[in-house]
Amino acid sequence: MNKTPFALYNTLSRSIEPFEPFEDGKVGLYACGFTVYDFTHLGHLRKYAMDDVLVRVLRHSGYTVTFVQNVTDVGHLASDADTGEDKLEKGAKKYGKTVWDIAAEFEQYFWKSMDAMGNLRPDVSCKATEHIKQQLEMVLELEKKGYAYVIADDGVYFDTAKIDDYGKLANLKLEELQEGARLEINTGKRNPTDFALWKFERPGENRAMVWESPWAERSFPGWHIECSAMAVDYLGEQFDIHTGGIDHIPVHHTNEIAQAESATGKKPFVKYWVHHNFLRVEGEKMSKSLGNFFTIDDVIEKGFDPAALRLLFMTSHYRSELNFTWDALSGMQKRYDSLVKKTKELLDLLGKKSDEINREEIRSLAYSEPVKTYSEEFFAHLHHDLGTPEAVTVLWKVLKDTALTADEMLSFLVLFEEILGVEVISVARAQLDDLVALPAEVQQLLDDRKNARQSNDWATADRLRDELFEVGYIVEDLSNGAQALKKR
Ligand code: AMP
Ligand code: ZN
After folding, report:
1. How far is the CA of 360 from the centre of ligand 1 (A)?
2. Are 159 and 150 in contact (CB under 8 A)?
3. 361-368 long-range contacts, CB within 8 A, separation 24+
4. What is the whole-number distance in angstroms between the Cα of residue 274 and the centre of ligand 1?
5. Which pLDDT value is given to residue 181?
6. Are 67 and 124 in contact (CB under 8 A)?
7. Which of 150, 161, 200, 382 could make an SS bond with 216 (beta carbons 3.0 to 4.6 A apart)?
């Protein structure tokens, strides 16, 4: 199949650029990870679902992708400007546990949520606390090259006036960034935009996570250094894509660029900067600190499928804000249910049992006419800065095209599922398998209902539908007959 060239919006240039990695056919991708001090919420999941789609699309386009994602388990201060409490210490106090327990428990919850969302695991998951040496080395290199200075009883700071392109990512001049930073308390910094590379424990602080460094016996890394140090460690001094939320543009990523390019002497540190817009709740950013967040468990407890949530995420572009409402999810759940129902019809028409679905064989149909036209359109949207909303509309078109056969439609679904990660076929298959093994009394009720319908006895048919509901089954009328589905 013809591959459309891949293009991606780059925050550095504020434009959609043709994608050309440093090395032909290979992509190094670093995604800013999760700070493990509280529950993973739907805002995070939206961001990681879109990272996941980016990786899937790149791999499908033939690139070998090395996908690295960190776990922030130390040093992330409540404010971006190196003031306020360490988030991990804050979480430990909130839940009355040690920082190590907090980190372990919320990391576990993060992966559980990621798995439920259908996000593929990164190739490398790296923890800040397990890469202290690499971070320290980068700070020492910066000190050696004259970019760092020490503020007594505070920390080692990066001197932003030493470089002439500080703030290039945020597209702001130093003075403008300084204006924002000035609002924060700063003691002893040479410039308001200077940031902590390494922090010292304050007298009487008694932190749980501290390491010895050349400057202080009890000290710990600043937040920004972990991403630069680990990215360089796993992907080299220059790599292709770095992702994060839009909140990271003015401070975290701006500082990552400053410290990495100054330490390695290589520019650019990253070729394409990808930034995800926020998931909001009633106009506010869904965030751990605002406490207005919902988790994947809330979604499941309310009876929704994570796959329906994922489909909802796919219908908005990653650079646009998405306002989360339960009504919107409810609407998407209905669309998802009808998608599963349609898929069951297709599988039924083809008479395919679970072990008879040969995905590769079915998928190959998607690359030849008449499905090819749709597949090309689908990829053209995705290859243009991940146009997932438009890609989803192609699926609705395919399912409405009466000229397509059941296996042709299914072939597109296989592709859709594999690239957008929205599980449909296995769900439909599992429901059908469930149907095959109906308890005898349920099957009897279903047969009675069928007979009642055939003799136009609608009252009896309705009563039997209610009876089935009472014993835990919902009747679904597919094109080739009625089926009973276990209630969720
Ligand atoms: P954190 O754990 O706060 O460092 O966040 C992990 C990632 O999720 C970062 O890239 C954030 O920018 C992103 N993020 C946090 N809140 C939201 C939200 N409401 N919507 C989308 N992305 C978010
Ligand atoms: Zn980061």
Report:
1. 36
2. no
3. 362/407, 362/410, 362/411, 362/414, 363/411, 363/414, 363/415, 363/418, 364/411, 365/407, 365/408, 365/411, 366/411, 366/412, 366/414, 366/415, 367/1
4. 13
5. 59
6. yes
7. 200
Q: Are 39 and 33 in contact (CB under 8 A)?
A: no
Q: What's the pLDDT tens digit per position in 440-461?
A: 888 889 889 988 888 889 999 9
DSSP E strands: which ranges in 317-456?
Answer: 322-324
> What is the C-alpha R_g of the chain?
26
Distances (CA, A) of 313 to 42, 43, 225: 10, 10, 31
Confirm or reject: Cβ of 78 under 6 Å from ligand 1.
no
Residue nearest to atom 17 of ligand 1 (CA): 43
pLDDT digits (tens, 9 = 90+) for 412-422: 999 999 999 99
Distance of CA 356 to the CA centre of its chain: 32
**Tokens found for residue 432:** 């059908």
pTM: 0.90
**CA 277 to CA 273: how far, in whole Å?**
13
Q: Which residue has the tokens 């080299």?
A: 236
pLDDT given at position 1:
42
pLDDT of residue 2: 41
Instruction: Looking at the CA of residue 285, tell me the nearest atom of ligand 1.
Output: 19
pLDDT at 360: 87
46 lines ligand 1 (CB under 6 A): yes
Write the burial class of residue 274 (CB in 10 Å: 0-12 exposed, 13-18 middle, 19+ buried): buried
Are the C-beta atoms of residues 188 and 171 closer than 8 Å to each other?
no
What residues of the chain score a pLDDT lower than 50?
1-2, 183
The whole-angstrom separation of Cα 58 and Cα 46 is 19
Pocket test for ligand 1, best of 47, 79, 324 (most atoms within 8 A of CB): 47
- What SS3 class is residue 57? helix
Q: How far is the CA of 158 from the centre of ligand 1 (A)?
A: 25
**Residue 303 — φ and ψ, nearest 5°?**
90, 10
Residue 407 corresponds to which tokens in the numbers above? 């296996």
Give the amino acid at 401.
Answer: D
Question: Is the backbone peptide bond immediately before 370 cis, with ω within 30 degrees of 0?
Answer: yes
Selection from 120, 123, 122 nearest residue 421 by Cα: 120
Whole-number pLDDT of residue 419: 97
* Through-space distance between the first and last CA atoms of the chain, rounded to whole angstroms: 40
35 lines ligand 1 (CB under 6 A): yes
Give, in order, the Cα–Cα distances in Å from 325 to each of 280, 281, 287, 330, 423. 9, 7, 15, 9, 22
The closest of 195, 200, 197 to 161, measured between CA atoms, is 195
Residue 32: CB within 6 Å of ligand 1?
yes
CA–CA distance, 286 with 324 (Å, rounded to integer): 9
